[in-house]
Amino acid sequence: MTPALLVSLLACPPVPTIGDSGSAVSDSGTRDSVDTGDPPTDSGRTDSTADPTETGDTAPPIDSALFGVDTDGDGLSDGLELQLGWDPEDPDSDDDGFTDGEEYAGGTDGLLPWSWPLDGCRWPDLRDQAQALAAKGEQGWDDRDVVPDLVLTDQCGGQVSPWNFPGHVIVVDMAATWCGPCRDAAPMLQDRFSAFRARGFVILTMLQGATPDEAQAWAAEFGSAHPVMADQDSELIDQLQERSTTYPSYVLIDANLVVRSVKVGEADQSWFDLYVPGLQDERDAELE
To answer: Quick one: 245 and 139 in the same domain?
Structure first.
């Protein structure tokens, strides 16, 4: 999938604003061995290609010799990639920064840029698509603005921004290490991330005034597999001052990187369950 195609699919007309009142508007990452060149056995992974026996159609057989060839050098044989419906001439079929071999080993879908392995604080790299989306509107934190490119240091010392994640529904969690309600919410946030990430969802916990070491300690304490970011200069709260200075607060962002709502104060699981699947459905409808 090229960046231009993904951007054109994600582009959408103005959307209704979601209010703060609450009105309506797991991925276990199991690891398989990388392809050895032999035709795969059934390991429980859902292939992106249909079984021809289910429709009565007969798919042309794949030349067995292709299971011993790896044209794009991604660690998967051409035969297996053809069987999966992935591109045997492109080492990263969905252009998300993870090779097809890494996706296969992580049990994720190499054709979906919002399906990526959870391994070592590596996040998708979809900034080309983000830049194209950002050119379509004003950047800021007001409803219908495109979220700014706020680059911060994550719990592993890397750099991450909301702009890594076009195509995902995003919740920015504005928190602080000393904030009791923020700490109370952390296990629930990880649970919601696990529940919704397979369809394209990410939580970005931005710890105001925290150091990278404190971000690492927070992620370790709460088992956070999503980005936990050290906002040492409190850039987020400075940018959000007109909307919230309360910890925690949550910014809901759709798949086009458009701000849809700011929830001031605590949110329970029902808030995520109300909004996240709806925005995922909205994205999927645009892609049909």
So the answer is: yes
Beta strand 201-208 with 169-175: parallel, antiparallel or unpaired?
A: parallel
pLDDT tens-digit readout, 163-188: 999 999 999 999 999 999 999 999 99
Q: Would you state the torsion angle of the CA atoms of residues 126, 153, 191, 43, taken in this order, to the nearest 10 degrees?
A: 50
Domain final residue pick, 84, 119, 154: 119
Q: Is the Cα dihedral 122, 123, 124, 129 positive or negative? A: negative
Q: Does residue 168 lie within any of the structural domains? A: yes
Tell me phi and psi for residue 249, to 5 degrees.
-135, 155
The pLDDT tens digits for 109-134 are: 999 999 999 988 999 999 999 999 99
Domain enclosing residue 48, as ranges: 26-119
Cα–Cα dist 100/93, whole Å: 7
Query: How far, in Å, are 37, 196, 257 from residue 249 at the CA level?
Result: 49, 20, 18
pTM for the model stands at 0.81
